[in-house]
From TrEMBL:
Enzyme Commission designation: 3.2.1.51
Statement: the UniProt record of this protein carries the keyword Cytoplasm: no
Endpoints of the signal sequence: 1-26
Gene3D superfamilies according to UniProt: Glycosidases, Golgi alpha-mannosidase II
GO BP annotations listed: fucose metabolic process; glycoside catabolic process
MF term (GO), any: alpha-L-fucosidase activity
Species whose genome carries this gene: Pedobacter endophyticus
Family stated for the protein in its record: Belongs to the glycosyl hydrolase 29 family.
Residue intervals of the Glycoside hydrolase family 29 N-terminal domain: 52-377
Reported function: Alpha-L-fucosidase is responsible for hydrolyzing the alpha-1,6-linked fucose joined to the reducing-end N-acetylglucosamine of the carbohydrate moieties of glycoproteins.
Protein name listed in UniProt: alpha-L-fucosidase
Length: 484
């Protein structure tokens, strides 16, 4: 009996293996296709927005971000102590009394504020749009909101800041997007989470306040092209899928064509940016903050922009810019890379408490602008060129044409720039963008692969070579494949 049992125990695993081997097919082990979830408050569109307003947004290439508010007055320093965190967060750092911070309103008197000068700086840099903080997390409103006392109207300055900015940027032909932090540290109804009945009642009041302020902003500044939301990550707001969705639709109805990114609202399962089916919520992906995608697959076919600080992580004015400060060429390269991957690049400015833009930012705007004056054709209204990236830099393509730009950041010693084209495509002519009369030598080196020759040893800054693709100029040569 015992022996029989032992034998059986040995046979059972073999038997099971045999049965499994015969029953499990390749289909069974293939990844299970996820069922689409029915969502009421998920994304309301799959794919890019095709309208004119969004086409214009897509063509901006380069933008400016402005972080300005009460935090610019301490500029990252409190009672002689420098804080390493982002200067615009100083109210939340340990040892800063909230009420003392809030009373900075009585010191807000930016005598050197000049909206036209800000717009002129953006114009000089080549920015096509600006995103301006109307209210950051501290809750201080740069416009005279009638729904709170915590505004410019009650500061020594008294006047609206947003209106002259919108007017000045509009006049300069630069589109304005209004930044708005939903999280509001000053409002008594704001909660990080809703745990009690009292929280719930307080937050209901806060939601109405938020709605009122957003409608007020769109009514006061009707030329604004979009709303840039922030401070939407806390549990309290993530739980408001229905409210936020309805509010977004109300805002879109009030200003048809308005552009709202993926940061405003979560779906009913609390998923942000991408809904529970993986579809982008909003008009463009707003998650590229202080980082860039590496390859086109990273952006999943969506519109996107990258917002970037000049030092490591300072948006508001910080007297002590520590660590690595990005140079104009680094910022230009980020702009080129963004456009080459179908996005826009937005450089942040943190004006001083007195309203002046710091000299380092003015200098960067000038240097970037000098480069843009010669090369912006390769940035504006350009898109992903669908070409293999090469070591010398980035490709962009003029939207709606066959004109390709090579934005060169690393020059090969032999002066030969490799270009790989898709099958059945050739190059009709190549020239430096700054000197279109000079025709560059094109050498076919294998099927659909070329060297464009440009001896430019004196290059001290990134430059652009252009060429046109031509389906009539495809190779007539037969390249023998190796037999290996
Ligand atoms: O906390 C803010 C930060 O201060 C800054 O405004 C940036 C800009 O994208 N947004 C938040 C962090 O994601």
């Amino acid at each position: 009996m015992k022996k029989n049992q032992q034998r059986l125990l040995k046979i059972i695993p073999l038997l099971l293996l045999f049965i499994y081997g015969n029953c499990v097919t390749a289909q069974d082990i293939a990844p299970v296709k996820k069922e689409k979830i029915n969502l009421v408050h998920g994304a309301h569109r799959d794919g890019k927005r095709p309208d004119e307003a969004m086409k214009k947004w897509r063509g901006y290439g380069l933008g400016q971000f402005i972080h300005w508010g009460l935090y610019a007055i301490p500029g990252g320093e409190w009672n002689g102590k420098t804080y390493n965190g982002a200067a615009e967060w100083i109210r939340s750092w340990d040892g800063i009394p909230k009420s003392t911070y809030d009373s900075l309103i009585y010191k807000f008197n930016p005598v050197n504020f000049d909206a036209k000068a800000w717009a002129a700086t953006a114009k000089q840099m080549g920015a096509k749009y600006v995103t301006i903080t109307t209210k950051h997390h501290d809750g201080f409103c740069l416009w005279p909101s009638k729904y709170t006392d915590y505004t410019v109207a009650n500061s020594p300055w008294k006047k609206d800041i947003i209106k002259p900015l919108v007017d000045a940027y509009d006049a300069a032909g630069i589109d304005v997007i209004l930044y708005f932090s939903v999280m509001d540290w000053n409002h008594p109804g704001w909660r990080y989470d809703i745990k009690t009945e009292a929280d719930s009642i307080a937050f209901e009041g806060f939601k109405q306040f938020t709605r009122n302020q957003l409608i007020e902003l769109l009514t006061l500044y009707p030329t604004a092209k979009g709303l840039w939301f922030d401070g939407t990550w806390d549990k309290s707001w993530v739980k408001q899928a229905a409210f936020a969705d309805e509010l977004e639709q109300e805002l879109r109805k009030l200003r048809p064509g308005i552009i709202i990114g993926s940061r405003f609202r979560a779906d009913e399962y609390g998923k942000r940016h991408f809904d529970s089916n993986g579809v982008l919520i909003g008009d463009y992906e707003q998650g590229w903050e202080r980082k860039l995608p590496e390859k086109i697959a990273d952006v999943h076919g969506n519109d996107w922009d990258c917002v970037m600080t000049v030092p490591e992580n300072q948006w508001g004015y910080n007297k002590a810019w520590k660590g690595h400060i990005k140079t104009a060429f680094e910022l230009i390269e980020m702009t080129a890379k963004s456009v080459s991957l179908g996005g826009n690049f937005v450089m942040n400015f943190g004006p001083q408490g007195d309203g002046a833009i710091r000299k380092e930012e003015l200098q960067l705007a000038k240097e970037i602008g000098d480069w843009m004056k010669v090369n912006s054709e390769a940035i504006y209204n350009c898109e992903y060129a669908v070409l293999d990236k090469q070591d010398w830099g980035y490709f962009t393509k003029k939207t709606g044409s066959n004109k390709i730009y090579m934005l060169v950041f690393n020059t090969p010693i032999n002066g030969k720039y490799r270009v790989k084209l898709p099958a059945k495509m050739g190059i009709s002519m190549a020239a430096p963008l700054s000197n279109p009369g000079v025709k560059l030598k094109i050498e076919e080196i294998k099927a659909n692969e070329y060297f464009i020759e440009f001896n430019n040893p004196s290059a001290k800054q990134p430059f652009v070579i252009t060429f046109e693709t031509d389906t009539d100029k495809k190779s007539n040569q037969n390249y023998e494949k190796a037999k290996t």
